[in-house]
Specification:
Helix content is 30%, strand content 17%. The protein has 309 residues and is α/β, with parallel strands linked by helices. Strand 1 (2-6), helix 1 and strand 2 (27-30) form a beta-alpha-beta unit. The longest helix has 19 residues, at 90-108. It binds NADP nicotinamide-adenine-dinucleotide phosphate (NAP).
């Protein structure tokens, strides 16, 4: 029995040790060293080159190394019929919540303006409203969106969220579906995108959506790069309608050196670091899911290939 592993970040020895502890009978092979493809029964990976997974005719289950799965569905040969699971993990959620809190607070307290003022030695006060009077809106109320909403509520922000299906979350104003998006946007002063990347959500943060946010709104995107149309965002900021933005993810990663986003004075950039799952947690989840699949059960955190997330 063998598991094929692939990650964008090369730490093969570390993963070998961590996976060895929870899967003692499993041979772990690191792509591109596949060996005999017929030995491969499980895959644990992120951004596996397209066409590779479909080569393994004895594959029984596929596990994403992270919460997002868009890179799997971008592979035209992805074997959609197999059990496929992603990571849902308290620690990953907590890290994402930290990122959201950090950047909501920056926008709430006008930190981008103060950074610019500091460059010019300008002393000009501006006080934010009380958090309870600041409306934060989260696109996506899944594991990460709900986690962030909980922490924002704790700081007394006025939190709303938007999802595909209806939700009832205490202390969060919930909107759902295309029909309720405009109402959600009209009340959102700080927009946080925690949607999965699907056909429906690609390019969702475009000029039409940005125009529906109130004057001076800020945008934070730790979802996926293609959620945002960068030219539309920069135009909306340059026009003064959007005050500022924080972006963690990009259409092309790493963000090319000559990309205009780098130098925009009102855009803060982080290099896809909003959250990550710890190897020990992913390894434990993988072991549990292999046990479940071997017992004929569904894996935990199963992805629905029809929905695409
Ligand atoms: P999740 O649990 O699957 O939640 C997704 C949420 O988005 C759900 O509330 C879902 O609605 C909603 N949604 C999906 N399609 C929609 C649509 N067309 N219209 C309205 N709402 C829609 O995902 P998650 O675990 O919270 O993760 C969210 C994303 O965060 C991941 O897919 C990944 O891309 C990103 N991420 C980024 C980082 C980073 O470091 N930057 C790290 C981890 C994850 P329903 O509840 O109705 O299904």
């Amino acid at each position: 029995m063998a598991l094929i592993f692939h990650s964008k970040i090369k730490r093969d020895d570390w993963w070998r040790e961590v996976l060895g502890k929870v899967l003692p009978g499993m041979e772990v092979r690191f792509y591109p060293e596949i060996g005999n493809p017929d030995d491969i029964e499980y895959a644990l990976c992120f951004a596996m080159p397209h066409g590779v997974l479909s080569q393994f005719k004895n594959l029984k289950g596929i596990f994403s190394l992270g919460a997002g799965v868009d890179h799997f569905f971008a592979d035209p040969d992805f074997p959609k019929h197999l059990p496929f699971a992603r990571v849902v993990d308290d620690e990953l959620t907590a890290r994402m919540s930290e990122y959201v809190l950090q950047h909501v607070l920056n926008h709430h307290r006008y930190q981008a303006d103060f950074d610019l003022q500091q460059k010019d030695h300008v002393w000009k006060e501006r006080f934010p409203p009380a958090a309870r009077n600041r409306k934060v809106g989260i696109l996506g109320l899944g594991a990460l969106g709900q986690g962030a909403a909980e922490r924002l509520k704790y700081l007394e922000f006025d939190v709303a969220g938007w999802s595909r299906s209806p939700k009832e979350i205490e202390g969060v104003t919930c909107y759902h579906g295309a029909d309720q998006l405009d109402e959600f946007l009209a009340r959102t002063e700080i927009l946080v995108c925690l949607l999965p990347l699907t056909e429906e959500t690609t390019g969702i943060i475009n000029k039409d959506l940005l125009a529906k946010l109130p004057e001076g709104a800020a945008v934070i995107n730790p979802g996926r790069g293609p959620h945002v149309v960068p030219e539309d965002l920069m135009t909306a900021i340059d026009s003064g309608h959007i005050s500022s933005a924080t972006l963690d993810v990009f259409i092309q990663e790493p963000l090319p050196e000559n990309d205009p986003l780098w130098d925009h004075p009102k855009i803060r950039i982080t290099p896809h670091v909003a959250s990550v799952a710890a190897p020990e947690r992913v390894a434990a989840l993988t072991a549990e899911n292999i046990k479940r699949i071997e017992n004929g059960e569904d894996p935990l955190n199963k992805v629905d290939p029809e929905r695409g997330y």
